[in-house]
Amino acid sequence: CKALSASPPCFFFSFSAKDMKHRLGFLLQKSDSCDYSSSHGKKEKISSSQRLSQEEVRKWADSLENLIHHDRGLAAFRAFLKSEYSEENIEFWVSCEEYKKTKSPAKLSPKARKIYDEFISVQATKEVNLDSCTREKTSHNMLEPTLSCFDEAQRKIFTLMEKDSYRRFLKSPYYLDLVSPPGAHCGPENCKRNHTHSLDCNSNIISQCA
Question: What Pfam family does this protein match (any one) (predicted)?
């Protein structure tokens, strides 16, 4: 904003906490238009009249299971992971969930190979952090893929998210802006800083759905 000293103050700081919370809430209602929703394409779209209640959001703090099995909770968590450059973990988990719904035996092998090549192999484009034992066992499972061939790897990644990124998510604006009343985390001494932080985070989410 210094470069435009003759112009009005930069508008980024004019948003209130209420504005930010409203924008994030609105975005999550439309979350089925984001990238992650491609794996949920068969699900009905959320009605524009449906509202995300405080009770629903508070349940996300009870467990990671509650969070990622809620469409809009999953959207918020995925956006948070993307801000930390670790979205491959939730993408792998979602891919495994979809894989386990495969009904045609003929499709198991090509689907399993696609997940393996994308997330587990040495040259994986979105390699997840697995210990050598789990990685080797999963590689062996590729010889004769079954619906449970990724179960152990999926559990390891779930535990990793549960103990690490999930805890940070609950302390981040991605969650706090939805579960708390406007201004609850914005005292006089840090209000401007929190508004800026909330805007940055919401901008990150919005950019994914553009």
Answer: RGS
Secondary structure in 3-state letters for 115-144? HHHHHCCCCCCCCCCCCHHHHHHHHHHCCC
Domain that holds residue 165: 54-179
In-domain check, residue 166: yes
| Structure letter (DSSP) for residue 61 | T
Whole-model pTM? 0.65
Q: How many domains, in total, are found in the chain?
A: 1
Name the band, by pLDDT with cuts 50, 70 and 90, for residue 181.
Answer: low
Q: How far apart are CA 136 and CA 171, in angstroms?
A: 35
- The verdict on residue 206 lying in a domain is no
Distances in whole angstroms, Cα of residue 110 to Cα of each of 28, 95, 154, 155:
33, 13, 18, 22
